[in-house]
Amino acid sequence: MANANARHAANAPGDFFVDTTCIDCDTCRWLAPETFHDIGDQSAVHTQPTSPADRLAALQALVSCPTASIGVTQAGSRAALREVSPSFPLLVEDDVFYCGYHAESSFGAASWFIQRADGNVMVDSPRFAAPLVKRIAEMGGIRWLYLTHRDDVADHAKWAGRFGAERVIHADDGRGLDVETRLTGSAPHELAPGLAIYPVPGHTQGSTVLHYHDKFLFTGDHLAWSKRLDSLYAFRSACWYSWEQQIKSMESLLPLRFEWVLPGHGWKFRAGAAEMTRQLQKCVDWMRRK
Ligand code: SF4
Fold first, then answer.
1. What residues are paired with 268 via a beta bridge?
2. Is ligand 1 within 6 A of the CB of residue 84?
3. Does the structural domain 4-86 have CATH classification 3.40.50.720?
4. What is the pLDDT of residues 152-183, one digit of tens each?
5. Helix spans in the chain (H)
């Protein structure tokens, strides 16, 4: 829980607040945009939540904040928080869930969970938080812990140890990591029927994305939705390996059909398949101008 004595002056008066330890990871802003906004290099409360839906979203942001920078002052909110904490992972659609509980060690990256009859998949690593561990166990544990790239691995060892999960990462990002499976080369890899991993070097040399059931694309830090640009985009200023290569990798995704972009950083995005292809082409065109 955040420190009320370090409450940022930019917060709207009231129950919810952000303190000055915020690392500007963006999570609260996409999870509860009716409450939190960007004040430059940190977040603050722009409007105190009043509706049940907005209060719930703000509490979910509090639980998910990687640095415990969000707080509440009223006893009623603290009581509600005890009900919200075990509610993760949250359903996205079908059998895909958002884990919450972002980890500071991955700079607050989002992680995702797929509940499947022949083996669940965790996509990147959330914080190893007791309420989430309990819920993941109730949902059948983890068969594969798929890691999109080296930056968002957080508590992977604890998750793998608890559930006996097979950790999968591309070898070009796996150096120094204790994992079970290292993918090599540039060809797609079928993890299981309907689950394919595509190498997308660029952000890092070993970045990959996971394509699931022609509907979901888990993109790590390769691709995300920008609220500010109102379009799909890639992190030009956080491209650690090769921008030219990342453009080629982005183009390689154009033939894929999907309706969801579920990233590590940045906002998630949903559109019909044809509109998604149009948005992706627009992103490629934008990247070529950068
Ligand atoms: S989730 Fe926490 S660290 Fe991230 S922007 Fe919001 S207050 Fe800051």
1. none
2. no
3. no
4. 899 999 999 999 999 999 999 999 999 999 99
5. 27-31, 52-64, 75-84, 130-138, 156-163, 243-252, 273-289
Q: What is this structure's pTM?
A: 0.96
- Residue nearest ligand 1's atom 1 by CA: 65
70 within ligand 1 shell (Cβ under 6 A) = yes
Domain 88-289 of CATH type 3.40.710.10: no
Q: Which atom of ligand 1 is nearest to the CA of 70?
A: 7
Residue 259 sits at the vertex; the CA angle it makes with 284 and 199, to the nearest 5 degrees, is 55
CATH 3.60.15.10 in the chain, residue ranges: 88-289
Condensed to tens digits (0 to 9), the pLDDT of residues 94-147 reads 999 999 999 999 999 999 999 999 999 999 999 999 999 999 999 999 999 999
From the CA of 27, give the closest atom in ligand 1.
1
- Please, where in the chain does CATH 3.30.70.20 lie? 4-86
- Give the three-class secondary structure for 285: helix
